[in-house]
Write a structure and sequence with these properties.
With 170 residues, the protein is α+β, with helices and mostly antiparallel strands. The chain has 4 helices and 4 strands. The strands form 2 sheets. The chain has a two-stranded antiparallel ribbon with strand order 1-2.
Length: 170
């Protein structure tokens, strides 16, 4: 298996490492710049989570791809927003727009009951994830990552298992 998928670009943009198939285990190369703030450190970790979970669900299609459902935001999925991505809150229209006041329907709250994703959308805006504060948005985003016991469609219901230990990714 090609292990370079995990060495994706983060805050400091570098190409993925090549010729790593001989490695005995997977690895993540990332670091935090102490010249930047805590929000950027959280964002770095969030990009790690995004990369790994995209890979975990790479063979799941449609609604069975729970990562794609989790990462929906209103601009790409009108009236079907969920939690979004590191750069995109449920109501964002561009990168880093965590302070947009526009209200949108979102099912972000259902991810706290994972794997039960039943529930109607609620109207959310910037006040729900910190009023535009980078750290608050990222903390809110991390709090919605599934972290319960069991498995759904062969994938652990605790996504942190994969984010912390990439050797658990199949």
């Amino acid at each position: 298996m090609n292990r370079a998928w995990l060495a994706r670009r983060f805050l400091v943009q570098r190409p993925a490492l090549e010729n790593t198939n001989h490695a005995k285990r997977r690895f993540v190369m990332m670091g935090f710049s102490y010249q930047r703030g805590v929000g950027e450190m959280l964002e770095n970790m969030g990009h790690r989570a995004e990369s790994i979970m995209k890979h975990v669900y790479r063979n799941h299609k449609g609604e069975e791809n729970l990562w794609e459902r989790f990462s929906r935001y209103d601009q790409t999925h009108p009236n079907r927003a969920e939690v979004g991505l590191m750069h995109f809150a449920p109501n964002s229209t561009k990168d880093y727009e965590w302070g947009r006041d526009q209200k949108v329907p979102s099912r972000a709250h259902t991810w706290r009951n994972f794997p039960n994703l039943a529930g109607e959308a609620k109207t959310l805006n910037r006040e729900d994830w910190g009023g535009g504060d980078t750290r608050a948005h990222h903390k809110w985003w991390f709090e919605h990552l599934p972290q319960t016991s069991g498995r759904t469609d062969g994938v652990s219901n605790n996504w942190w298992e994969y984010i912390i230990d990439p050797d658990k990714v199949k």
